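Running log. JK asked me to keep both predictions on one page so they can be read side by side. First protein, sequence followed by its tokens:
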Amino acid sequence: MTPPEQDPHHPAGYPDGYEADVVLRDGATAHLRPITPGDADLLVAFYARVSEQSKYYRFFAPYPQLSDRDVARFTQVDYHDRLALIVTVGSEMIGVGRYERTGRRTAEVAFLIEDAHQGRGLGQLFLEHLAQAARENGIHRFVAEVLPDNRKMITVFAEAGYKVAREFEDGVIVVEFDIAPTDTSFGVMQAREQRSEALSIARLLTPNAVAVIGASRREGTIGNALLRNLRDGGFPGRLYAVNTDTKATEIEGVPAYPTIRDVDGTVDLAVVAVRAELVADVVLDCAAKGVRGLVVVSSGFAEIGGEGRKLQRYLVGLARSYGMRVIGPNALGLINTAPGVSLNATLSPLMPSKGRVAFFCQSGALGVPILADMVGRGLGLSSFVSAGNRADVSGNDLMQFWYSDEATEVVLLYLESLGNPRKFSRVARRLARRKPVIALKSGRATQGVPLGQMVRRSQLPAATIESLFRQSGLIGVDTTGELFDVAQLLAHQPLPKGRRVAIVSNSDALTLLALDTMAGCGLDVAGEPRNLSADATAEDFGVALSEVFDDERVDSVVVIYTPPVQSNGAEVAQVLAAAAAGSDKPVVSTFLASRSVPEALRVPDDHGGAARGSIPSFLNPQYAVGALAKATQYGEWRRRSDSRIPDLPDVDTPGAEDFVAEFLQRHPSGADLDDADRQRLLSFYGINVLPAFPVLSADEAVARAEDLGFEVILKATAEQWRMRPDLADIWRHIHDEDDMRAAWAEMTESFGVAADPGRAQFVVQKMAPPGVPVVISALEDVSFGPVVTFGLSGVATDLLGDRSYRMPPLTTRDAAEMVREVRAAPLLYGYRGSDPVDIAAIESLLHRVSRLTLDLEEVVRLDLRSVLAAAEGATVLDTTIRIAPNEKPRQDAPARRLT
């Protein structure tokens, strides 16, 4: 089946951006969209299935059927003052929610949900999406009337996270609340999002019955490999083979059927390995069978170009519309080692042992060597997903699942692209507070997007990804080897409590390597290394190890053991294991140059693997210390108290929103703001700019300076002259008329601006207090959304890219780290005897810019190009701002949706 063309006959003003695939409370998916006049028959059929009681709760009177007038009124809306959203599963409507404006800022809201689908969280989803749409249309407050015994609807409002006022009038409860997002409402939505998305992944990872569609007898085929791996991996549930080209009753000892519709019994998961053009028909068959999820191994989708992308979009939309999640297409598959599941639905015959490490990757080609490396290291696995084109299920979904998965203690991510960086950052940060997340991002240097992954291409520098990882508490690594090194440590040892590291070694050469690596990683040596002789005995190691484990100044221990001739190290291993047992100090080793957990250093778990307390070994001390440094940095991040997003009571967001709307009425295509408009917009966020006055002549410059009382500057404004290392674009300390005329003559001669006398290329501005110049910027990126940047001003720092990046909202910790992590930061703290600047004033500006760019999507670029940070305060001298209409809405809007 080929994908049909999308219906172009939407009514005028139809808001495509309000369409969304959503996950319901039970983990199934559905489609939410605005209603259209063409939905009349759908609405009538839906209403016929609704119980009389639900109709009574909605209309407060018996209302057995809808009149033609009712149908027309309910399906014909203007999408602004009157909006209705419906949720569909397959071809049926299962719920409708609407608001109708009753005042300039107020609207009445109501829902009606089919009885069979009540309790699946539809009311909460309607409220979230209606509130978001209402805010965009200038509505600030919802009102609803509810019968007292309609407890379900009362609960929807009460548990939404808004501050709800209730009154009892004429036998009806009147509910009223502001719909501006709050920390509480955000928290409620995110908790619901985590539970529903986690459950949708659990449905994929814990099936009771699996069908391989495209199963084959022929060895070497994908269908044959999938069937064998599922069978040989020990899956205890029901397994079915499906192949339309065979009349066999079994394949590889597995019951076979021509279609999945013919299978006796239910099927939870379908693993699909048929030609791309047949997959859509398979999805429809699976929907009819009640399948809960798909693993699509088939290729021939977005990775082949435009037609494949269209087919891929259709596949995902079709599957979601029938309640199913999709891993793939072009996927390697998934593994779950949990007892009672033992699911290997991949193309890899390797089934790792049960463990505490979970892994998500996007590359099918890399998935096989990754699994081989894990098996070779003896690193046990809890679950594994290789998502291929990642058209639906993504790393965000898996992180939501692993957040509450008790079998997973460490999470590994191999990422080729970030489909929704804002949601990724938010979900990863929440997970990292509970479990370590180790991430390797490929393509950082080129910002390339692999074939098949339909993501928005960011224009931000590679450093943005690194900053995103730091902001989210992720442990970023550069190689797959480092990925597993850090995992090997965190899966077996506790987190370091500090940076002080003791070394016990019987090799001077390897000790020096360890010390060099520690210096480069920012770790501190706890006392002198315990350098033992090359032929040190187990007793010698025991004495040294007892000292370092008992030393309160030691946070972590590195043990290096290179055996003398004819020694297998068994006695040293026993001593090391005994010394480390029960200690809360992590220990890493270079033990016999092993790259795993040696048997002699292993604490066995219930499944024959290595339990916590086992001591990992690395090929050399550099790898061991590198892994320890990453764990130490993560431990420091975890120990930081949760910082907060500061309150900014002087911010006037509604005023700013009105200003932006009015500006876009004047400039429908967008434009740069002039001085007056920039001052006005920034004033809504408490950012004051020192006024600058354009001048066209020396006489004007003198007159303006006299008005200001002199002590002014003359500044060139043309972009091509700014920050030129060979020219001074600012003339400072102008005390009187003679100074100004001298400055004018010198600068006009230097800049050669006399040829354009009608355009002001100079401004006069009052002198600001002396300080360090810094730059604060915000950019609306098509992929990341708003990103705030900080750095010191100057050619050198600009050339070297010495900037820090964060995604709003900024916590107090985020702003503090932004200021301190740039390499030129010492200039702000009294470098070489200079006065320290007011760091709090810089951080306040960062928070205000963060809030502005988060509130106002239309501000696509904002630069505080020249900010002088002084001993007291920070003065904004020069700004640029551009406002433009939203062409593509942000991907992580408050209302829950699958992206």
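And the second, directly underneath as requested:
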Amino acid sequence: MSGLDPGMEVRETAISDIEVRSTLTIAAGPVLDKMVDELADTRFSILLADRTSRIVDRRVTSSTIGRALDRVLAVPGFQYLEEVSGTNSLATAFELRRPIAVTGEEHFLEALRCFCCYGAPIIHPVTHRLEGVIDVSGPVADATTLLGPFLMRAARDIEERLLEGSRMAEKQLLAEFQAHANQRRYAVVALGENLVLTNSAAVDLVKGSDHVALRAIAADLPGTAPVECSLTLASGTEVSVRARAVTGSHGGALFEITEGGTPKSRRPAATGGAPVIGAPDNEPILTGLSRTILITGEPGTGRTTTARTIGGPECTVFDAADAIGDEERWFLDVRSALLKNDGSIVIDNIDGLSPWLAGQLAGPVRVSRNPVVLTSAPVPDLDNPHRALASLALTRHELQPLRTYPHKLAAFAKSVLAELLPESTVELAPSALHLLATQPWPGNIRELRAVLEYAARGRERGMIVEHDLPDTVRMNTSTARSLTLMETAERDAIVAALRTSNGNRAAAAAELGIGRTTLYARLRRYGIAESVPRPGVRNRNS
């Protein structure tokens, strides 16, 4: 069903950076050290995978077994799933949630039949959730039943250390919460890895879906220094949030939440009924001083919706896609509207125009007395004729990609869901919201809408849970956590540098002021494609 053939190699997927100081790796470290000592005179290796079956640690007793593992991609950062590697002790133990031994011919892929493998799941004693998988592998000639009990003892030792670590982290978080929980003037929420604490004021104010936004804020906390910000809760209430990390709590944070302001009113729907999620907070007034406005952003960020809203309900819209096949006729229609119409003109996707058409359009836009709204890809991605056209706009708004504000995703998802099912009571469960917040969203709001439309199909009430989401979302675990704002900014800067250098990594590294080795590591961490398409070489008429 996954398209694997026994004669295939392990199917390559993205190899991402790993979190070396996670709760699992900290708990497993001493146990793995002891296992290495006990296996020192053997040809066995040790692999540790996290709760998504991504390898986070590897210990080898010889260079020979290390090279053998490299050939089958058993390396840190690789997600060892049955969909890419078939039956084996790591992926199958992850799938079945129980210990398993797979030796020689029992492997599905011939490339793995030189190994004897023993795998066991690691279950958290408190939450009873799968935390990871530990695996011992070696040459098939060295297969022995003695490794089963040896591996199970190691798994139990790691689980015991997870329990001890959870108790200590929970004690730290509980102590911090108790020091502030008696406050009646504001809500207090403490969020740990597997723990949520709230005072009575927070019970009425903060819903489960708000925890996703709070955890996104916690991911950006700089050490123990407090951070203050504003937030719109799922209920629509505007609140002020004071957040700070709790030392020794494994990423736990304490939030003091105070009501302030009034609930935001929902923005009017644009053509097709889509909520204007990507629109600027302060929509400009089309006057003589701002007659031409430019809306830029990645595909799916709401450029068209924002432009139509700014242009008004009576605006005339021209899409660059309609110019395909008859550029001259399209140009004449646009020029006529620019010179004669008395209403607003929206010219959508100017980056899709041919260079000739972009150059021809600059003159009529410049002399038009009508309000004009242009939309395009980010200005750095434009060719010279398109940049010249975009430069006519004295007012510009750049719509940020969805991945840059995970703390607002819950509010956006609720708005989209309300538009899709206006008469229903369907809601998103916190687990589903958390999974949505970890996605990279290359298609931005457009992709979010498609995902929610799939998840809500045929529903009139109830909760959308994780299993209702499409497989492309549930199986996309390339990032163990959502990127912080700083990481998102770094990723976008790398992509921009690669585009500017036409994919030349050496030139991009020089522009960014980093070494090529550092650049390669960042490419793996952020899952940036091997090649970034040159913005100037695409065929604008196809």
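Observation for JK regarding the second prediction: The first helix runs from residue 23 to 38.
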